[in-house]
Amino acid sequence: MSHFLLMTLYAALLGVFFATLWKRERRAQLVLFAKIFGSLVGGAILLGWLMYFFPSGPPKPFP
Amino acid sequence: MTGNARRRSTGRALALCLLAWLVPTAGHFALRRRGRAAIFAVLLLVAVVVGIHLDGELHRVVPGQPLTMLFTLGAMGLGAPYFVLRHGLGYVGVPEAAGFEYGTVFLLSAGLMNLLLVLDVWDIATGVKD
């Protein structure tokens, strides 16, 4: 499985879990799921893009 | 509520929490929250199956590494399945596997989720939540 698919699956699992645990009304559950899922997946993609500007470069040689 | 009734109620809540820890989602089933229990059961099952499929680590205490105690407590939150996997089936994970890190996170998360479910059972059993 790809890294992205695993990350998406993990975000979905946590989203459903906390939405079911903390909310009782269907609409509130959907809103919380969207927030958690969006934050995790969107945050990871955003962080990935930010890392584009800070490339790690080749490893430093041993002194 | 009288003292005896309160003690009985607390004892029942503690017993339900123990059941919820040992057999994940059994506490919710016992409290007749069957819909939620079924959802939680599927979520925990998926997390554990994916974690094992990726050869993730089922944490154990490593001497000289104090953080492994916290990780192990989290993983042991899974209850009986942790002991069955660890001691019954001898599962430990494969550090060389490509999905080792992801698998470890899935297994640890399953344990932590079940610990949160135990707290939820306590809240429901003591009347704090519905």
Question: Can you walk me through this structure?
Answer:
The complex is a heterodimer of chains A (63) and B (130). Chain A is mainly α. Chain A has helices at residues 3-22, 26-51. Chain A has 2 helices and no strands. In chain A, helix 1 packs antiparallel against helix 2. Chain B is mostly helical. In chain B, helix 4 (67-76) crosses helix 6. Chain B starts with a helix and ends in a 5-residue tail after the last helix. The mean pLDDT of chain B is 93.
Provide key terms for this protein:
heterodimer, A: 63 residues, mainly alpha, 73% helix, B: 130 residues, 6 helices, elongated
In short:
The complex is a heterodimer of chains A (63) and B (130). Chain A has 63 residues and is mainly alpha-helical.
Distance between the termini of chain B: 19 Å
C-alpha Rg of chain B (nearest Å): 16 Å
Most extensive protein-chain contact, per-chain counts? A-B, 12 and 18 residues
* Major beta-sheet overview of chain A: none
Name the shape of chain B in a single word.
elongated
Chain-averaged pLDDT of chain B: 93
Secondary structure blueprint with pairings:
The complex is a heterodimer of chains A (63) and B (130).
Chain A: H1 3-22, H2 26-51
Helix pairs in contact in A: 1-2
Chain B: H1 3-22, H2 26-30, H3 34-53, H4 67-76, H5 80-88, H6 100-125
